Amino acid sequence: MENFKFYAPTKVYFGKDEEKKVGKILKEFHPKKVLIHYGGQSAIKSGLLDRVKKALDEENIVYCLCGGVVANPLLLKVNEGIQICKEEGVDFILAVGGGSVLDSSKGIAYGVYNEGNVWDYYARKKKVKGALPMGCILTLAATGSEMSNSSVITNEDGNLKRGLSSEYGYFKFSILNPELTYTVSKYQTMCGCTDIIMHTFERYFTPYDTLDLVDQMAESVVRTVIKNAKILLEDPTNEKARAEIMWAGSVSHNDMTGDRSLGDWACHQLEHELSGMFNVAHGAGLAAIWDSWANHVYMENPTRFAKLGHRVFGLDDSDTLSCALNTIEKMEEFFKSIGMPTSIQELLKRKCTEQELYELTYKCSFEHTRTIGKFKELDETDMLEIYRMANEKEVA
C-alpha cells in the first residue's frame, strides 16, 4: 500500500440560501476590504451579485469589484485584479462564480502576496510563499476548485495554459447552493459532469496500490455523476440531481478519492494545450482526448480498467482484456449520450493540421523538458500519438 496524504481545510456551507450568510461568514475573518471577483452578466442578471453586496453591507464590510472573468481565465484579468487589490488595500478575496472565477481569484491572491510577475509562479520559475485569504460562492459544478488547492490560468502571450497547486491555494470557506446552478446551460452542465468524472479518473488510474475503500468511493462518484447527468439532460432544475452533482464535484477534487500527487493527470495536461490554443470548454476537451489516451495506455494495467467496468457499468466479462476495452467503449458511449465530443475533429469542427499537432505536443512537453502521466509515463512520441489518434477519429 502506497503512503498518501489528505488535507481538506475548506469549510463548506452546503444548501439552499447559504449565500445569504456570506456577510456573517466573512466577518469572522475581520477583513479591512474585500474584492468581489465575478464573471460576466450572469451574476448580475440573476441578482446574485446584488444579494452578495447586500449581505456585506449589512455587516458593514467594505468591498470593491472586479468582474469580467471568461472561461479559461486569462492572465490579463488576474493582473487587473492584482492591481485593484494593491490600489484598494484589499486583504480578502471573495470569488462569485464557476471554476474560472475561482481559479482567477487564486491567481490574484498569489499575485498580491508574492513579489514579481504572478505568471512566473504558474510557469514554475518561482515558488509561492503564501496567498491572500479567499472564500467563494460557487455557481457551476465542474472544476472542484472550491475544495482543491489547484488553479489554472491562460497566458494570452503564446496561449499557454498552466496550473499551480500549493498549500496556499485553498479557500477558507466555500458556499455551495445547488440552486445557483439551475441556469447553467445544458452544454456547460455536461462539460462540468465530464470534468468531475475526469478528476476522479486521474486519481483512479494510478500505478500504485490503493485502498479498496478509496476505489469504491471513486467508483461511487462516477456512478453518481453518470446517473444524475442523465437526469439533468431531461430536467435541468432537478434539485436532488443538482445537489448530487455539486457535491460530487467537490469530492472528486479534494483528495477524498485519492491523493492527487499519486494520480496520472496526463489527460488534463494534454487537454490544457487544446483549450489554451483553441479556447474550448475544458470538459469537452477532456472528453475528446480520454478515449484515445485510454486506448494508448490500457495495456499497462488492463485489470484496472476492467475493475472500473465491473463496478461502474456492471460488466460481467470474465476476460480482462475484453472487459477493459468494453469499459473504454462504455465511457465513450456515455460521453456521446450527454453531448460531449469524443474526438478533436468533433471538438473543433475540423481536424488539426500536422503543424498544430506538433505545437500541441511541444507545449505539452513544456518545450521538450518533461514527460507526463504516471499510469504510463508519456514522452513526446506518446503525446503526439494520442493527439493524432484523437484527431483522426471520425465524427459519428
TrEMBL record:
Residues 9-178 form the Alcohol dehydrogenase iron-type/glycerol dehydrogenase GldA domain. Keywords: Oxidoreductase. The keyword Oxidoreductase applies. The keyword Oxidoreductase applies. GO terms for molecular function: alcohol dehydrogenase (NADP+) activity; butanol dehydrogenase (NAD+) activity; metal ion binding; methylglyoxal reductase (NADPH) (acetol producing) activity. Its EC number is 1.1.1.1. Residues 192-390 form the Fe-containing alcohol dehydrogenase-like C-terminal domain. Pfam families: ADH_Fe_C, Fe-ADH. Gene3D superfamilies: 3.40.50.1970, Dehydroquinate synthase-like - alpha domain. This is Alcohol dehydrogenase, iron-dependent. It comes from Holdemanella biformis DSM 3989.
